[in-house]
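Tokens in:
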């Protein structure tokens, strides 16, 4: 009974108050989900190894212009290539202090600006201005994946790279797909709109990056509804 007495008001607040929802999500993600973050760290590292492989011919003396969408607290910063110029974008301003504290640790990155915006409409970013766009665990939460992909293509230079790491849907025939469908409504509420069972790689291919290279992994130490992980890179 005591659990209901605090859970119900929390659910109501999350549904009706966007400011509270944003703050709740940033605090939970940054302060309470450290064990989950440790488990996905190898996938972050691998994603940036894939990026380095695709940038093997890059002149290291030339700064690499990178836009990271949904940067949150900056969990990817330690993996950035040397001589990177970073433009950060996030719609949730409650992450800003976490990001400001974290970025001081990584002197190999030049920080250009922070843009407070949805990824579906990045009007603060110029056309054909980025060498790389980075997305980790963001497309699961956006309102319109197709609009985001259109914006990513707009801001990338010709031959620019779109690097993504996402949790995705199990194949339809797998038991995990039913688990994801069952958990999806509450997960979406508590994790700021995150949708568990999007087929993100397929959407990226369909909406503008037909030649995407992907690695899909099913780590047994992750919760089943969060287990399928896809690492991919597309070229404009």
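Residues out:
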């Amino acid at each position: 009974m005591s659990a209901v007495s605090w859970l119900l008001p929390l659910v109501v607040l999350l549904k009706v108050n966007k400011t509270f929802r944003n703050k709740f999500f940033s605090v939970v993600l940054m302060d309470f989900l450290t064990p989950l973050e440790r488990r996905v760290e190898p996938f972050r590292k691998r994603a940036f190894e894939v990026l380095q492989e695709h940038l093997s011919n890059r002149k290291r003396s030339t700064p690499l212009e990178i836009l990271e969408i949904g940067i949150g607290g900056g969990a990817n910063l330690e993996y950035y290539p040397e001589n990177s110029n970073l433009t950060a974008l996030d719609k949730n301003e409650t992450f800003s202090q976490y990001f400001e504290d974290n970025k001081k640790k990584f002197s190999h990155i030049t920080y250009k600006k922070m843009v407070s915006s949805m990824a579906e409409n990045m009007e603060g970013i110029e056309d054909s201005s980025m060498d790389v766009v980075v997305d980790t665990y963001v497309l699961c939460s956006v309102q319109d994946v197709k609009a985001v992909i259109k914006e990513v293509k707009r801001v990338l230079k010709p031959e620019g790279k779109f690097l993504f790491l996402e949790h995705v849907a199990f194949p339809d025939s797998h038991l995990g797909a039913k688990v994801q469908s069952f958990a999806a409504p509450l997960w979406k509420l508590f994790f700021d709109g995150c949708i568990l069972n999007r087929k993100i790689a397929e959407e990226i291919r369909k909406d503008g990056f037909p030649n995407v290279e992907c690695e899909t992994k099913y780590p047994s130490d992750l919760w089943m509804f969060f287990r399928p992980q896809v690492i991919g890179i597309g070229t404009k």
